[in-house]
Amino acid sequence: MVQVMWMAVLALVTFSVGYVGYSRYLARFVELDDENETPAHKYDDGQEYVPSKRSVLLGHHYSSIAGGAPIAGPITAAAAFGWIPALIWIAVGNPLFGAVHDFMALSSSVRHEGKSIGYIIGEYVGERGKNMLLWFAYLTIILVIAAFAYLIGLVFDAFPWTATASLVYIALAVLFGVYLYQLNLPFLPGAIAFVAMVFGGVWVGLQYPIAVFAREGLPAGTIVLLGDGGSWLPLAAATNANMAAWVFVTVLYAFAASVLPVWVLLQPRDFLTSSLLYVGVGGMILGAIAGTVIGFSPITVDVASAGIEGVEVASLTTQIPGWTGFVHPALGPLFPFLFVTIACGTISGFHSLVSSGTTAKQLDRESDARVIGYGGMLGEGLLAITAVIAVSIIAGGTETLSSALVTFPAGGGALLTVFGLGVTAAATFIGLVFVSFLLTSTDTAMRLGRYMYEEVVGTPETSLERTTTNRYVNAGILATAGYLLVASGTWENIWPLFGGANQSLAALALLVATVWLANWDDDKQLVSTGVPLVFMLAVTVVALLWIGLLRNPSTILAGEAGGFFATLSLVLQSLIALVLVGLIFGLVRYSVDDIREARGGLDRDSLTGRGGSGPAEASDD
Fold first, then answer.
1. Would you say the pTM of this structure is higher than 0.85?
2. All residues at 6 or more sequence positions from 551 whose CB lies less than 8 Å from its CB, including other chains
3. Is 84 exposed, middle or buried (0-12, 13-18, 19+ CB in 10 A)?
4. Cis omega (within 30 of 0) on the bond before 336?
5. Integer Cα distance of 404 and 66 in angstroms
6. Tens of pLDDT along 213-230?
7. How many CB atoms lie under 10 A from the CB of residue 562?
8. DSSP per-residue letters across 449-502
């Protein structure tokens, strides 16, 4: 057994070295200059392009990227392969791969009028390349909706107190938006009051836990909204009616939130979420360190609704294996599945959509890209480390991959007992932290999906295009597709496909950055983006082909899918995986041709930037 404090120490050391050294080099490399006018100032419209203070924008960006994935992925990987490979990939890969990815996506967008990565690739390889990337991102968005809806339903079912606290949190976010944007009242006193009320919502949750349908194991006093029933829901047979209902409710919430004006929910909720994030992540990290240095009082974790009963946490040491083997029976081999299972926390393609979709339009100064892009990703890495720590201290919490997921609130709550909190209250709070990230990412993803489809269509010319670009119809298509995909009912099917798509998008975002650098100046080396690009392409193509051609077809042919909806879901998942691989090969081909033309070849000198002759004419900068 190893003291979990050392996991936090290792990450803090590698992240600090990365930020102090490598990010400074990258900032000079892309020539960040505060004398340059950012798109936020150039196109300030009070709606999409709005110059924002660095601290405010960091909170918005961080809460948008730090969804549930950097919690769920590391937990699943630690349960499948052991905590050692999960820890190493996060601690080393984050500053070298993920933070570089986020920083370059943000910087390239700022240099291209705050446009998306799809627009940027289109500038260099043409309209076909742009549309291919946008369709790839659109399909990834559908998988985000499916995976995160499953997670939210799982947490609400296991922790009914968190369900109530989350509903209070959403209501408070709407009221905070009215307070700020309709009543025009002062920010600081309102922020203090609403953040305090969010924490008060945890108390409300403890007093009035809620469930949609009744099931065994719910805590005494749970308010059951619809009584018995719900067996007709697609997920009910694979999970239970209550979880299946919460998944459906989550998809409806994401639909509604994605079509509302941003001031109603998105902006105020992101501020409240960032407050939860700082307290939750900071509290767990400090709890792990303080509990080791000062001392930890043994506790018993007893959350029957989550399947955790009478588990004693005697010390803050690892209670799960550090290494379980190269092959997991449900996920597959460590390569490639460790690297797609940790779909955030180390590197995430979804971040490129946030960086180039919203953050670049709000950047006040170019130098802020280092703190927000590179530093924000390091912050998400800390969240991933806390997830590994939390699941590691609960003995027996990784018997199945799904059970490992609900171990996070319990393990995180155990860490917070160092500060005198009761374990149930602390677990409810960490559950709220978990769900607030998930809700933020789910509706942000659906909103971004709407934008991408509209960008692909351009100016609607036919009645079909006018209908499908309607924001309600557009969001409805995303919601329906996401719900159909989640109907397979197994985490082992849903998460690796999402991870494969998400990490493929990360590879393509790195490809976009590499194309930009190649066209910008012959002296710009392509190694910083090229090495992680090649590695992630190899990982994700193998993973997607494994899912599309081997695992899902084998499950269907063996009659193990679990019913009509589950079979349909697996077929759709296989088709999406294969379409994604085709799009990857097409984009790589177009991009390599462009780089070869811009640099006059792909030899060593052209990739390292030696012997360059200055800026290439194709650059838009």
1. yes
2. 332, 493
3. middle
4. yes
5. 19
6. 999 889 889 999 998 988
7. 18
8. HHHHHHHHH-S--SHHHHHHTSHHHHHHHHHHHHHHHHTT--HHHHHHHHHHHH
